[in-house]
Amino acid sequence: MSSRLETRRARFEACSGQCFFFFSSLFSKNFSVFTPFSRIFWFSPLLSKIFLLLHLFSAEFSVSSLPYTFLQLFNFFSFFQQTSSALRHPHSIFAGNANFFLVGPSILFLMNFSLLSGSVPLAFKHAVFQPILKKKNLDCYDLLNYRPISKLTFLSKILERLVLSQLQAYLDANNIAEKFQSAFKPWHSTETAFLRVLNDLLVSTDSGRSVVLVLLDLSSAFDIVDHNILLLRLEHTVGIRGTALNWFKSYLADRLFSVNLGNFSSSSVPVRCGVPQGSVLGPILFSIYLLPLGTIFEKYYIAFHCYADDIQIYFEITEDLAMSFHYFRECMHEVKDSRVILLS
After folding, report:
1. Which neighbouring-strand residues pair with 131?
2. Which residues partner with 261 through β-bridges?
3. How confident is the model at residue 59, as a pLDDT?
4. Do residues 256 and 126 touch, judged by C-beta distance below 8 A?
5. What is the pLDDT of residues 282-291, one digit of tens each?
6. Where are the beta strands (DSSP E) in the chain?
7. Tens of pLDDT, residues 47-74
8. C-alpha–C-alpha distance, residues 127 and 285, integer Å
């Protein structure tokens, strides 16, 4: 039974890739081409039944990929019209509501097909890296001073935004997200991280106790995320199963990147680890990857706060100085053994 389902999923993945290339070819043609296809994808009873069957198949799991409506897709496009820096942004095609209502139903079909089949088209998984100097005063001839920012296709960022909305809602509803992470959250910033850590330190020192503060700055943290470990986090820590988990497996697998510098472009090479910087899902996937850290720190009564990949850990020194630092060393050993972050 499982092999039969895998075969069907593989067919869906291949078909979704074909749909993407088909729609991409239509984008370069006259808008009138979309009119008959809009009617087919918008009103076809057969496609509605396919979506219903796929949704029922995924509904038995704790997290399922729900299909989106045309209005929801329109709202996402409106957001990206103002903020997107995506690769090959089709401004001329989606400039104005009239154009969107012609091509929107076709794109809606592609997005829902990807979500309900648990697959991501290969064309969505190619990133163009554009090196950006981390700070203006750094040596521009030293390659280590550059940050690789990924530029992804416009439609792939729309798909990621749809997934993010469901994933974030699930994390919030089940109180899974790390509460001491101030990055990638509304109403949180470096200020909230600073105020919380400073307040805790002042409370301890005002009580006459000494505190040790350790700052961890993880180098290339986004680029060294192990895909297998991340999938285990999604399955066992977050609780994602079935079609939704297959979607994330497909999202992380077979990714490619090339480098674009000025008028020059490199050949494409595979990405074997890391989450794309510049992607929509990258920040939340990185936060999920770090989730076990909170449990480890709390086990040893060590306070902490994170802002993206910058981690502040601090603990009070008791009368038994040796025992205080013994707990700290044991905590660092467990963090290292968990393979969440690399410690030297």
Report:
1. 148
2. 264
3. 38
4. yes
5. 999 999 999 9
6. 126-133, 146-151, 211-217, 256-261, 264-265, 269-270, 303-307, 310-316
7. 444 444 444 444 333 444 566 776 777 7
8. 17
Please report where in the chains the tokens 């139903």 appear, as a residue.
Answer: 105
DSSP state of 167: H
Asked if 74 contacts 103 with a C-beta cutoff of 8 angstroms, the reply is: no
Which pLDDT tens digit goes with each residue over 87-133? Answer: 555 554 555 566 677 777 888 888 888 888 899 998 899 988 888 88
Closest CA to 230 of 213, 255, 208: 255
- State the Cα–Cα distance between residues 324 and 122, nearest whole angstrom: 51
Task: Return the structure tokens found at 40.
Answer: 């087919």
Helix axes 97-117, 45-58, angle to 10 degrees: 40
- C-alpha 278/C-alpha 131 separation (Å) is 12
CB 275 within 8 A of CB 286: yes
Q: Which of 105, 115, 301, 282 is nearest to 200 (CA)?
A: 301
The model's pTM:
0.75
* CA–CA separation, 132 and 146 (whole Å): 5
User: Which segments of the chain have a pLDDT < 70?
Assistant: 1-67, 70, 76-99, 339-344
Q: What percent of the chain has pLDDT over 70?
A: 71
Amino acid sitting at position 339:
R
- Tally helices (H) and strands (E) across the chain: 13, 8
Q: Could you tell me which residues are beta bridge partners of residue 217?
A: 310
**Geometric angle at alpha carbon 272, from 217 and 339, rounded to 5°:** 45
